[in-house]
Write a structure and sequence with these properties.
Layout (H helix, E strand, L loop, with lengths): L1 H9 L3 H64 L2 H10 L47 H11 L13
């Protein structure tokens, strides 16, 4: 009979058990809601970033098209046919260099005139690696052990 009273004494009231179950259910519900909120937040940020990337890619393609259009306009404007038509419109005539008249300008010395240097391949210096970085761990350990002073036991004592 005593054991029945002890079990009955430690048994909780039904309303406390219901409160515990409601508390556990609400805790699980709040945890799921928090995880869902974090997931939705990250998804929204990823979507906004993806949309921004698409917008920038569209701008890049539009700028590339504009650059290509301007390059083609420049190529057309500097073509030989268009340049000769412009020269004729300005009453310019093609001259033979032998027939050209060269004038000497007083005070002008052509010594300041210099041609551009000849094209050359720039030599890229090879990267130099310090010797500290070329040795292995075993080499370093061997060097450190070799630098240790010898112990007194291994050195023969001078005999009188």
């Amino acid at each position: 009979m005593k054991t029945k009273n002890i079990i009955h004494a430690y048994k909780q009231a039904p309303w406390r058990q219901q409160l515990q179950w409601i508390g556990i259910f609400l805790l699980i519900l709040v945890t799921i809601a928090a995880i869902a909120g974090v997931y939705l937040s990250l998804s929204a940020k990823a979507a906004v970033t993806g949309r921004r990337i698409q917008k920038l890619e569209f701008q890049i393609s539009a700028l590339e098209l504009e650059i290509n259009d301007l390059a083609s306009q420049l190529a057309y404007a500097s073509s030989a046919r268009v340049m000769s038509e412009r020269a004729k419109a300005l009453n310019m005539k093609q001259r033979d260099p032998a027939e050209a008249l060269y004038l000497e300008v007083p005070g002008y010395s052509p010594e300041g005139f210099a041609l551009a240097p000849a094209p050359s391949v720039d030599k890229i210096p090879s990267p130099s690696i310090l010797p500290e970085f070329t040795s292995s761990l075993w080499d370093w350990l061997g060097d450190r052990l070799a630098q240790l002073p010898e112990s007194a036991e291994s050195t023969p004592e001078a005999q009188p």
